[in-house]
Amino acid sequence: MSSSRLKLHGFNNLTKTLSFNMYDICYTKNEADRTAYIEYIDEQYNADRLTHILTTVTEIIGANVLNIAKQDYEPQGASVTILVSEGPVNAREQEIQVHTASPGPIPGAIAAHLDKSHITVHTYPEYHPHEGISTFRADIDVSTCGEISPLKALNYLIHCFDADIMTIDYRIRGFTRDITGKKMFIDHKINSIQNYIPDDVINMYNMIDVNIYQDKIFHTKCKLKEFDLDNYLFGYTKEELHPGLRREIAKKVKREMDEIFYGTNVKDAMFKIDES
Question: Is the pLDDT of residue 272 over 60?
Answer without folding.
Answer: no
